[in-house]
Write a structure and sequence with these properties.
Radius of gyration: 22 Å
Strand order of the largest sheet: 3-2-1-5-4
Largest sheet: 5 strands, antiparallel
Helix content: 10-25%
Protein name: Zinc finger protein
CATH class of one domain: Alpha Beta
Order of helices and strands: EEEEEHHEEHH
Strand content: 15-25%
CATH superfamily of one domain: HIV Type 1 Reverse Transcriptase, subunit A, domain 1
Structural class: alpha+beta
Length: 220
C-alpha cells in the first residue's frame, strides 16, 4: 500500500468531493479516495473539517470496503419488463418509454458490456515494449482466479491478446475470503503521457440534464 500526502483539504466541493492542495495546484478528490492522516498528536477540537488527508487506494482490510457494492455478475437478472414507469405519465408517454427501453434492451442491463464506438490510445514516453514477469498466485486462489478470468471473458470485459506489453495480475484477499483480481499497471502509468483534460463534476453533469423529460432509475 503506497500513500501520497498528507495534503491540505482547502474546502468541500460537494457532498462527496473535496478540494485538496497538491503541490502548487488544487485537485478535487472523491471521498472514497481520501483517508484521514493520523497525526501523532490529536487535532485541535475546533478543526471540524479534516485539515489533512492522504490520498491512496482503499485498504482491503476496511470492513466497510464492500458494503452496499453490487459486483457485476455474468447472469442477467434485470430485463425491460422490470423497469418501473411513472404512472403519472400519459398512456402514450408510457408506451413511448417502454418502446425506448425495449429498443435499448442490451444497453439497459445489469450485466456490464463494452462498446466499439470509442477507442482509447495510450501514448507512451518510449516506444520499446515492456514485459513484467507474472507474480506468483497463491495455490489456494488459482481456481478462483481462473473462474474470475472466465467470467470476464464471457462478459466481454476482457479479451485474449498477443500484445508485446505485459503487466502482471495480483490477488487481494477480501474480508469474506473471496478474491479481488487486480493488475499492477505501475510500469505503464510511469510511461503514460496523460491527457490534460478536466473531468466533469457531478454538478456539471446534473446541469446538462436541464430540460430533460425522462429519467431512468435503477431500483434494486
Amino acid at each position: 500500500m503506497r500513500y501520497q500526502g498528507p495534503f491540505v483539504v482547502k474546502k468541500v466541493a460537494s457532498d462527496n468531493n473535496y478540494i485538496c492542495q497538491v503541490g502548487a495546484s488544487l485537485r478535487t478528490y472523491h471521498a472514497n479516495l481520501i483517508k484521514k492522516n493520523e497525526e501523532p498528536t490529536p487535532l485541535p477540537p475546533h478543526d471540524i473539517l479534516l485539515p489533512h488527508a492522504a490520498v491512496a487506494f482503499i485498504k482491503e482490510d476496511d470492513p466497510d470496503m464492500d458494503a452496499n457494492i453490487e459486483f457485476p455478475q455474468i447472469e442477467r437478472k434485470e430485463f425491460p419488463a422490470n423497469v418501473m414507469i411513472n404512472d403519472k405519465l400519459t398512456p402514450d408517454q408510457q408506451r413511448e418509454v417502454r418502446r425506448v427501453v425495449e429498443q435499448f434492451s442490451d444497453t439497459l442491463s445489469d450485466v456490464p458490456g463494452r462498446t466499439s464506438r470509442i477507442k482509447h490510445h495510450i501514448r507512451l514516453t518510449e516506444e520499446k515494449p515492456f514485459q513484467i514477469r507474472p507474480y506468483p498466485i497463491p495455490v489456494h486462489a488459482t481456481d478462483a482466479v481462473d473462474k474470475e478470468i472466465d467470467n470476464m471473458l464471457a462478459m466481454g470485459i476482457i479479451g485474449r491478446s498477443s500484445s508485446p506489453y505485459a503487466s502482471p495480475i495480483t490477488v487481494v484477499m477480501k474480508k469474506d475470503k473471496t478474491i479481488r483480481l487486480c493488475i499492477d499497471f505501475r510500469r505503464l502509468n510511469s510511461l503514460t503521457i496523460f491527457d490534460a483534460e478536466p473531468i466533469s463534476t457531478l454538478e456539471e453533469l446534473l446541469a446538462k440534464m436541464k430540460g430533460a423529460h425522462f429519467f431512468f432509475q435503477n431500483v434494486i
